[in-house]
From TrEMBL:
PROSITE patterns reported in the protein's UniProt record: SAM_MT_PRMT
Keyword Transferase: yes
Name recorded for this polypeptide: Protein arginine N-methyltransferase PRMT10
Organism (species): Solanum pennellii
Keyword tags: Methyltransferase, S-adenosyl-L-methionine, Transferase
Keyword Cell division: no
Listed transmembrane segments: none
Domain Protein arginine N-methyltransferase: 183-354
Gene3D superfamilies linked to this entry: Hnrnp arginine n-methyltransferase1, Vaccinia Virus protein VP39
């Protein structure tokens, strides 16, 4: 995931210095860039999207938002771009300049160090390319900066790479649900022991802090989503799209709060519902007036083959519920940006399960944090 700045700063009143310390600084390290550059699904998708659609790049002006190491800018130049503006908010820009020079494209690629919201280009561009996707697509809120770039610098007939995105959820089974509950119980047992010892040996009763400690541990162990590489056989119900994004027309306001009402039929026999898995895919389609010759998809869905560094987000429900093939699960899904940190997300599921026999089970709901 490349790095840029926050286009929604006026909405969230974000301090740039704090935002840099919490977010951008990570992308200034080569080890982090290497992790992304080693993701074959990510790399192959962007490579194929560019080189199988050279007509979008040949002789054109390109803007790479959050260029990172500069790889997308270099590929754009190799595909025949007339000019590439590679914008990077961190000192990684220095490494990108070195790569551009050693690969012989300093006459085409101009690396600009600065936030997307603050820099000025000498011209409008024909293509905006960016790898802006965070965990569960929208964590990090980097798409805000892509929207800012689009609204300021994209020609009216320009194209976005990627052009579309979708968010998915599906019911899953996972042994992690039991392990996280065990970890939570151990943390609470340890706290109880700590309170008793502190009072016995030091004469101070820490019991008044039990509730805030409990809330803290519950959030950490039971309400924070997990990064995981799910196997397809852990998906026990039909996946459903909760959000579709057209990168050419979506606004920041469209993404501040998401709501969806969906249903999923359980496809596995006699298993446990342990929660939901969430993932995304993006597509390189060009635009209606100027379509891609070869549409490319990048998916982070559970796979038996190569996973991605994004993996999937797992939202665990405890206790788990026994389900059977043919049961119908309906769900109200909501996702909002965290009030404390606009790059993090808060997710809530309200679910009802109707068994194939027609019997309805008690509804259940849970709030999660993507941190």
């Amino acid at each position: 995931m490349g790095s840029s700045s926050n286009a929604a700063a006026p909405i969230n009143n974000v301090d740039k210095g704090v935002d840099y310390a919490n977010y951008f600084c990570t992308y200034a390290f080569l080890y982090h860039q290497k992790e992304m550059l080693s993701d074959r699904v990510r790399m192959d998708s962007y490579y194929n999207a560019i080189f199988q659609n050279k007509h979008h790049f040949a002789g054109k002006a390109v803007l790479d938002v959050g260029t990172g190491s500069g790889i997308l800018a270099l590929w754009s130049a190799q595909a025949g771009a007339r000019k590439v503006y590679a914008v990077e908010a961190t000192k990684m820009a220095e490494h990108a300049r070195k790569l551009v020079k050693t690969n012989g494209f300093e006459h085409v690629v101009e690396v600009i160090e600065g936030s997307m919201e603050d820099i000025t280009l000498p011209e409008k561009v024909d293509v905006i390319i960016s790898e802006w996707m965070g965990y569960f697509l929208l964590r990090e809120s980097m798409f805000d900066s892509v929207i800012c770039a689009r609204d300021r610098w994209l020609n009216p007939d320009g194209v976005m790479y990627p052009s579309h995105a979708r968010m998915w959820v599906a019911p899953i089974r996972s042994g992690l649900v039991d392990q996280k509950k065990i970890d939570y119980d151990r943390a609470m047992d340890d706290w109880s022991h700590f309170v008793n010892e502190t009072k016995t040996f030091y004469g101070v009763d820490m019991g008044s802090l039990t509730k805030p400690f409990t809330d803290e541990q519950r959030k950490y162990y039971l309400q924070t989503s997990l990064w995981n590489n799910l196997h397809p056989n852990q998906v026990i119900g039909k996946p459903a799209v909760i959000k579709e994004i057209d990168c050419l027309t979506s606004s920041v306001n469209d993404l501040l709060s998401l709501q969806a009402n969906i249903s999923s039929i359980i496809t596995a026999e006699n298993t446990r519902f342990c929660g939901f898995g969430g993932w995304f895919d993006v597509h390189f389609r060009g635009r209606k007036e100027n379509p891609a010759k070869n549409e490319i998809e990048l998916t982070t869905a559970p796979s038996e083959d190569l996973g991605t560094h994004w993996g999937q987000q797992v939202f665990l429900f405890y206790p788990s519920t026994r389900v059977s093939q043919g049961d119908n699960m309906t769900m109200n899904f909501s996702m909002n940006r965290s009030k404390e940190n606009h790059r993090l997300l808060e997710v809530e599921f309200d679910c009802e399960l109707r068994q194939s026999s027609g019997k309805s089970l008690p509804s259940f709901s849970k709030k999660f944090y993507i941190e």
